[in-house]
Design brief:
By secondary structure, the chain is α+β, with helices and mostly antiparallel strands. The chain has helices spanning 14-26, 46-51, 71-81, 93-119, 122-143, 156-161, 168-175, 179-182, 184-194, 197-200, 206-219, and strands spanning 5-9, 31-34, 60-63, 66-69.
């Protein structure tokens, strides 16, 4: 009997998209359930509340009835459970630790800083812009001249960062910056990622993401 795999997510969530990319890379068949209606963020399903009673948020991977929460943990779980495909993390303990470090760096920095870019104005926004550029330059330095963060193989750090490719246009438009100009190697990495089916089929049009953010700004009276 086939395993029951369900992913609770939200179309625009980079965290849910990480999980979808990882599942696609491993060739895992799963059922995807969109959790929220855009007009009502408080309307959370009983399944979500039951599966993630602590944080009450997506993504949640439900594997044979057992929930796994938090996107980086889910990606690692996918790598360990469906081990037949190409590994997402290296086998060497030190390389594995370094990979987790950069995944954690992306997780803690990009979304929070990017959110400040579209929520704030004036000097506060400029500070967030400077901070994002520093973050992106650190990532570009780690990438170096490699095809992917792990070398020739698309892996964990790439999966962690790739969903934000669709958010770059929003950050650029809101804060007046150019990812291509600031971090050309990272921009080229993003284009390579978009050539992968797992990424291209998961990410949404950057313009659709920007429209979504504009709706949020209107909703929260940021305009």
């Amino acid at each position: 009997m086939a395993e029951a795999v369900v992913l609770l997510g939200l179309w625009v969530s980079p965290f849910a998209q990480r999980c979808r990319i990882a599942l696609a890379e491993k060739g895992v068949a799963y059922e995807y359930k969109e959790e929220y209606k855009e007009e009502d963020w408080t309307n959370k399903s009983p399944l979500l509340l039951q599966s993630n009673p602590v944080h009450k948020k997506v993504p949640v991977l439900i594997h044979d009835g057992k929930p796994v929460c938090e996107s980086l943990i889910i990606v690692q779980y996918i790598d360990e459970v469906w081990s037949d495909g190409a590994p997402l993390l290296p086998a060497d303990p030190y390389a594995r630790a370094q990979t987790r470090f950069w995944g954690d760096f992306v997780d803690k920095k990009i979304y929070e800083c990017g959110t400040r870019l579209w929520k704030l104005k004036g000097e506060a926004q400029q500070e967030a812009k400077k901070e994002l550029i520093v973050i992106l330059k650190l990532l570009e330095a780690e990438l170096g001249d490699k095809k992917y963060f792990g070398g020739d193989a698309f892996g964990y750090v790439d999966i962690t960062l790739a969903p934000f490719i669709a958010w770059f246009y929003t950050y650029e438009t809101c804060a007046g910056l150019s990812v291509e100009a600031e971090v050309p190697k990272l921009a080229a990495w993003g284009r390579r990622c978009m050539e992968r089916e797992s990424v291209a089929k998961t990410l949404y049009d950057p313009l659709k993401v920007y429209e979504f953010v504009c709706q949020l700004k209107k909703k929260y009276g940021i305009e």
